[in-house]
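Sequence in, structure out.
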Amino acid sequence: MFAGSGGRTLLMRKPLLAAAAAIAFVLPVTAQEALEGAPSPNEIVGAAAPEEWIAIPAEDLLMMTLAPAADGSEREVVIQLMPAPYSQGWVANIRTLARANWYDGLSINRVQDNYVVQWGDPGYDNPESGEVEQKPLPEGLRVMGKDDYVYSRTTGASGSIVLHHPDNYLEDSYTDWTWFESGWPIAYEVSEDTRTVSNWPVHCYGMVGVGRNYSPDTGSGAELYTVIGHAPRHLDRNIALVGRIISGMEHLSSLPRGSGALGFYTEEEADKRTPIVSVRVAADLPEAERPEYEYISTEGETFARYAEARANRRDPFFIRPAGGADICNIPVPIREYEGD
């Protein structure tokens, strides 16, 4: 038995759900409770007080500039890096690689429909690259182990395991439960035998992960991918997640699909590889050129109302509230800061 927030005691167990079953709030709202004229999730977020928005540090933002589109328009992708305590070895490597200008001149090499877009060195672990020589990596990169995919801590020697999770957590088919932590979708698992609580980020649309070869290789951060399809949750705890796309996703998700193995571009499709002009840490840019983004606090009242509204749509278009939502169907609102 685990003591939950607010002093209530919860028996946590994996829900007996089929793989395709909906992941539901513990206290779903029924159709009979639907309210006429209820605000939409976007309207709820739009009414949030300014103090509910949290600025993203420039040190946590990557600016990836791709070669211009065929019509000459600019293509810039903004990536928010994962904060502590998750994946920090890989995140540190990515900053090192960006500050060494290592990503400059590389390319988008793999676009697999309903799965991922991958970028980096076209000669790295690419069955379709031909005889492309790999670019040397900078010195000083960290090497992580598979245990680093998960953040774990021991809770004590005896007695109940006290869990300070929110009352409106989400049950989950892959683990004990999920919710949001500091603006990120996070999974949780508890082991009474080892008295360990384990947390890890989950593979939702737009999340950025580290490409790797077969274990024990865990990747360095030189090869990155983003999810462009249905959330591949089976990758959770098997690959490091290091961030998410917060702007410019359309420049990646709309790229032509590769016809080679795993969606890699073949040698004959080399002209489809989109060149990467540069990748920079926003904190290193001149102050006037630094983008400013903020996310809505996931610990606040507005987000709780927004999440419940995503799970139970009552605005005019909807006939019946769903009564639940997958963790990946509640995207955390992020916006560009426009000043006071």
